[in-house]
Amino acid sequence: MFGMSTTELIVIVLIILLLFGGKKIPELMKGLGKGVKSFKEGLNEVEKDLNIDETNSKEPTSSTLKEEERRGDNN
After folding, report:
1. What's the pLDDT tens digit per position in 36-70?
2. Which residues contact 68 (CB under 8 A, 6 or more apart)?
3. Residue 8 in contact with residue 1, Cβ under 8 Å?
4. Among residues 59, 60, 50, 57, which one has the least CA distance to residue 68?
5. Both ends of the chain: CA-CA distance in Å?
6. Residue 45: its H or E element
7. Helix (H) or strand (E) run with residue 30 in it
8. How far is the C-alpha of 7 from the C-alpha of 67, rounded, in Å?
């Protein structure tokens, strides 16, 4: 996994335990989980907005019609 051996992972986990202690790690993981959840919700919201914009852009509006007319005049 990620080019690391099992021994290296165990050493990293032990260092984290020494730095933060056993009681702090669940709090850190809870915060990390909330951050990941928030990030995913943000991505879903942006994706939803892009899908809405995409469906709206398929319907010609006055500004897109003017843009198409201008492009046609330049050719």
Report:
1. 999 999 999 988 888 877 777 665 555 656 666 77
2. 60
3. no
4. 60
5. 55
6. helix 6-58
7. helix 6-58
8. 62
